[in-house]
Amino acid sequence: MSAPLVAPRDDVGLMDGYHSAQVDVDVRLNTNESPEPPPAAFLDAVAAAVATVDWHRYPDRAATALRTRIGALHGVGPEQVFVANGSNEVLQTLSLAYAGPGRSVAVFEPTYALHAHIARITGSSVAEGERTVDFALDLDEVRRVLTEAEPALTYLCSPNNPTGMVETPETVVEVLGLAPGLLVVDEAYGQFAPWSALELVDEATPLVVTRTFSKTWSMAAARLGYLVGPSWVVAQLEKVVLPYHLDSLKQVAGLAALDHVGAMEERVSRLVEERGRVEAALRDLPCEVWPSAANFILFRPATVAGADVWRQLVERSVLVRDCSSWPRLDGCLRVTIGTRDEDDRFLASLREVLT
C-alpha cells in the first residue's frame, strides 16, 4: 500500500490506537459492560420520549434537563455538571481545556490506557509514575512525579482499571494537596466501590470526578458520560466542546435512566455478590488474583502463559481481556463479571486450560 498523500502529525503517525478484541463468541467478558439489560420500563420510556423529539431542530445545547437531574442525584447544581458522549469525551474535553502543547498530564501505571492516550492526542506530554509491585499508589512516587512534571492534569482511577483497586479518601486528599493543577478522579466503576470522591467536590477545590452510564446503568450502547466538579471548570469545558455535541436521543435516554436509580442499584448489588463468588473460585485455581472493587477481576495464571490462556479460552468461545502485553502486566488477564451462567462457563473453561 502506498504512503498517504497527506501525512498526519508526526506524533499521531507513531501512535497505536486504542483497541479491544472483537471476536464472535458465546461468552463475552472483555469490555466491562453490564451483563444485564436495563429494565423494560426504561426501554418503554425511551421509546415514548423518542416520539416527542423535534428531529428538525438541534438538541438543547446545554443539556439543561439532564444536567439538572444528574446534579440532583449528587447534590449539586447543573452548573457543576458537564455531560458528553461517554466519559472518554469528558476526558478529551478536559485535555483540550487544561492540557495540550506545552503542558503535561500525570498518570500512574498500570491504569486506564486512555488517560495517557487522549492526553497525547491533544498534544500534551505524559508523565508516567510507577505503582508498587502490588499495584497500590506509591505516595512518594506521586510526590516525585508531580514535583518534577508540574502537570496541568493528574489522573487517579478509582476503582482502578485494570487492577480494580480503590484509592482511600486519605490518599485522594493527599494527592489533591500535592497536585499543582486539576485532579481528575475517574470513577467509571464508582458505583461498585465503598466510597466516592464526589464527597470531596466543592467550588473551592480543583477536583473533578468523572462517571459513565455505560457500566452500572446498562447503557454502553448510548455512549453517555459526565463530570461533576466546580462550576468554573465546567465553564471552561463548555468553551472547547463542539456545539450541540450531545444529541437529543442521548439526552432523553439519560433522563429515562435516572427514573430507575433503584433498578441500577439492585444490578450493582447482584454484580458485587457475583464478583465475590468468581474471585473465590479464581483463588482455588493456580492464579494470582488481585482484589477488586469494580465489575471485573485482574488475574495472572501461574501454570500457562496469559496470552496462551486467552487463546485457549477463545477456542472455547469465551472472551476475556488479554492484558499480558501491557506494561507492568506481564501474563495478566482481566475478566468482566457476567451473569452466573456466563461466569460458570468462563470458570469451567479456565479450569480446563489450567489443569
Overview of this protein structure:
- With 355 residues, this protein is an alpha/beta fold.
- It has two domains: 10-38 and 262-354, Aspartate Aminotransferase, domain 1, CATH 3.90.1150.10; 54-259, Type I PLP-dependent aspartate aminotransferase-like (Major domain) (Aspartate Aminotransferase, domain 2, 3-Layer(aba) Sandwich), CATH 3.40.640.
- The protein contains twelve helices and twelve strands.
- The protein has a seven-stranded mixed β-sheet, with helices on both faces.
- Helix 2 runs antiparallel to helix 9, helix 4 crosses helix 8 and helix 6 packs parallel to helix 7.
- It is globular, with a radius of gyration of 21 Å.
- The protein starts with 9 loop residues before the first helix and ends with a helix.
- 43% of the residues are buried.
List the main descriptive attributes of the protein structure presented here.
355 residues, Aspartate Aminotransferase, domain 1, 5-stranded mixed beta sheet, 2 domains, Aspartate Aminotransferase, domain 2, 7-stranded mixed beta sheet, alpha/beta
